[in-house]
Design goal:
22% helix, 7-stranded mixed β-sheet, alpha/beta, 228 residues, single chain, globular
Amino acid sequence: MSIELTWHGHATWVIKSEKHSIVIDPFFDDNPSSKIKASDVQADFIVVSHGHFDHIADCASIANRLNIPVFSVYEIATWLGEKHGVQNCVGMNLGGSTTQEFGSLKLTPAWHSSQLPDGSYGGNPAGLLFNIEDVNLYFACDTALFSDMKLIGEEGIHVAILPIGDLFTMGVEESVTAINWIKPRIVLPTHYDTWPPIEQDAQAWAARVRVSTPAYPVVLQSGESYTI
């Protein structure tokens, strides 16, 4: 059994297990870092962390084309159904979990904001905790550093995906603190280099992680994959 993580730039990821494919925060067509378009995506599930355009822009088009379910907080699920005709939206909330064919998903807290592209209220932003084939994957998503990451770490995190871009999320320094609190075996950076305001030297970040944390850092280029 193996799990493949593919980064499509910014905060868009695809998780592939032996039987299923999950798109996280689909942002392809207007994403200057993405090497593919929304029409190229094939998947079985979509998960959206919060309502900002750069995390939800292509959700409805992919969900409607493929007729696949979308998991998110209740307010976003309702908005997708009422405003964009997405037929299978699963509304959740922080701390709640669901068991699906791919495994389980729990929504964790994230310290951020969440306004939908049309100005509608997007509910609480979330992090994502997956258990797929007995591997715990934690996507912190767009968030500041917060001390309850220590509690998330108690779940036994195998892989953590953390933002490092700063300005809108935590930056490099805070991510190192988060890694030491979460204690993942492997860590990957996200939400950086899409535009100049969030440019970061990911290799310098990885070097810092190696000397300051017990985690193994993996840096991907857009379109590249890492197999667990």
